[in-house]
Amino acid sequence: MDTVEDTLLSSLKELGINQDNYGVLALLPLVLVAWSDGKVQKAEKVRVLEIAHENGFLVGGEDVLKGWLDREPTRAYYDTGFEVLIELARRERGVGTGLNADSLQELLDLSMDVAKAAGGLFGKAFTVCDAERAAMNSLAGTLSVDDGASWQDLLAELD
């Protein structure tokens, strides 16, 4: 009978991720938001890479992230990735550098940074498109962060 550990390792392998580079999985929500309008804009890519380096999520995962930014993952890939991310975050060791179940909210905050990266023009306030709003609300629900309600308020403030 497979253990939870075996299932996690199998799912990571399916995603092209291993025990050495699993921290990159914390970037998958950011990638979802970057792709939400059908393409990754240069500013979004730059912001994802900055966040990856600032938070230590890229150790050994550069090729995985590059693949995600060059070609959008499938819905099934996202679903499996988020399931694994949630399970890893529930464990004491967390994901990447200290990310745990209590800081899944932080991933939403970082995803918002990506959404805002491509918004704003001529000094006007940052804007978040409808597709990015939908992605953020979906992420809040998927990651079980406050059912997305507070995200709707936050996104409304950006208009």
Provide a descriptive summary of the structure in words.
The chain is globular, with a radius of gyration of 15 Å. It starts with a helix and ends with a helix. The chain is mostly helical and 159 residues long. α2 packs parallel to α6 (104-117) and α3 runs antiparallel to α6 (104-117). It has one domain. The chain is built from eight helices and no strands. The chain has helices at 4-14, 28-35, 42-55, 62-70, 75-90, 104-117, 130-142, 149-157.
Topology, element by element:
Layout: H1 4-14, H2 28-35, H3 42-55, H4 62-70, H5 75-90, H6 104-117, H7 130-142, H8 149-157
Helix pairs in contact: 2-6, 2-7, 3-6, 6-7, 7-8
Low-pLDDT sequence parts: none
Secondary-structure element series: HHHHHHHH
* Number of discrete domains: 1
- Distance separating the two termini: 52 Å
Number of helices: 8
Biggest beta-sheet profile: none
How much of the sequence lies in strands comes to: under 5%
Short description:
By secondary structure, this protein is mainly α. 59% of the residues lie in helices and 0% in strands. Helix 2 (28-35) runs parallel beside helix 6 (104-117) and helix 6 packs antiparallel against helix 7.
Descriptive keywords:
about 160 residues, 8 helices, about 60% helix, globular, mainly alpha
